[in-house]
Design a protein that fits this description.
2 domains, 8 helices
Length: 180
């Protein structure tokens, strides 16, 4: 039985991603299990505007929406979105972002395509990126997709500041909001 349990868990993780059992769990369970599932990533405690834009904004969006299929354990189409290096390298079809040109970036094109379109990502059965998250990715790419630049150094316009606050509230359990 123990061997069957381990093999089932490993098979499910390979097929559906490491967070498959917790992704749709109630918030209370996700909050309890989340610290156990973290790799070497540490929580950022500095204010959002002082965080590096990739680590503070982009990476959490990709973690929620893309990494279950394009991460360390599973990287469909040779694409890894769990690291900046993987994102910039792209996959078997080439780069997924064109710095300074979000409208020409396959990452954005896939997210904006109709849900039933062949190349839409994430797949229908996975949680979809919302308008705010896509807008922030577009903003980041259009600003050149910087890696270590602080959010404040990009001088976000008031609309982007509002989106940053909305998205950070959704992804920060300390603020009492449920991640979507």
């Amino acid at each position: 039985m123990a061997l069957l349990e381990v093999a089932s868990h490993l098979g499910g993780s390979m097929t559906h991603g490491r967070d498959f059992l917790t992704r749709y769990a109630p918030t209370a369970i996700r909050t309890l299990v989340r610290p156990l599932m973290r790799d070497a990533k540490t929580e950022l405690t500095e204010p959002l505007m002082q965080q590096p834009v990739f680590v503070g904004i982009v990476e959490p969006i990709l973690e929620q929406r893309c990494v279950s299929c394009h991460g360390a354990e599973k990287h469909k189409a040779g694409l890894r979105l769990d690291t900046l290096e993987g994102l910039l390298q792209g996959g078997q079809d080439g780069p997924v972002i064109v710095a300074g040109q979000a409208k020409d970036s396959p990452l954005i094109q896939c997210m904006l395509s109709p849900l039933d379109a062949d190349g839409h990502m994430p797949p229908e059965e996975h949680p979809q990126a919302n308008v705010e998250e896509i807008s922030l990715l577009v903003w980041w790419i259009n600003d050149g997709a910087p890696a270590a630049t602080r959010v404040a150094d990009l001088k976000p316009k008031p609309e982007i500041r509002r989106l940053l606050e909305l998205v950070s509230q959704r992804t920060d359990p300390a603020k009492g909001k449920e991640a979507q």
